[in-house]
Design a protein that fits this description.
Length: 127
């Protein structure tokens, strides 16, 4: 087990971000902080550090429990961090996520919608 890991690599490996390049971009744009200080993607994170992440308008807070360099399944990644996000921020996330349903399903064999059908669908969704 390593003693230090790059922050972008750790955020990607514990599945906070979908790809390492997204994690790197988040660090570069100041969305990842440790101790109220913006960190670069090359920052070496250690155990017991608190990582603040601003993702999709939500402020998330994680405590580094274990360091991993390789991306693993969600069940193996879960014990590597502790989610310390405040309850009100979690409720804000849940409220945002509720109502996001599955994509629409067209009948089999009907093909893609025409330009006219697409406009009708868009008008219907706006209401």
């Amino acid at each position: 087990m390593p003693n230090k890991v790059r922050i972008d690599k750790w955020l990607w490996s514990v599945r906070i971000f979908k790809s390492r390049s997204i994690a790197t971009d988040a660090c570069k744009s100041g969305k990842v902080k440790i101790g109220d200080v913006n960190v670069k993607p090359s920052y070496l994170v250690t155990r017991e550090e608190l990582v603040q992440v601003r993702k999709e308008g939500f402020n998330l807070l994680f405590k580094v429990v274990d360091l991993i360099e390789k991306r693993v399944s969600a069940t193996l990644a879960q014990p590597c961090y502790e989610n310390l996000t405040p309850e009100d921020e979690l409720n804000k996330y849940k409220d945002w996520f509720v109502g996001k349903g599955n994509p629409e399903i067209r009948e089999r064999g009907t093909g893609r919608p025409t330009k006219r059908e697409r406009r009708e669908i868009d008008r219907f969704k706006e209401k």
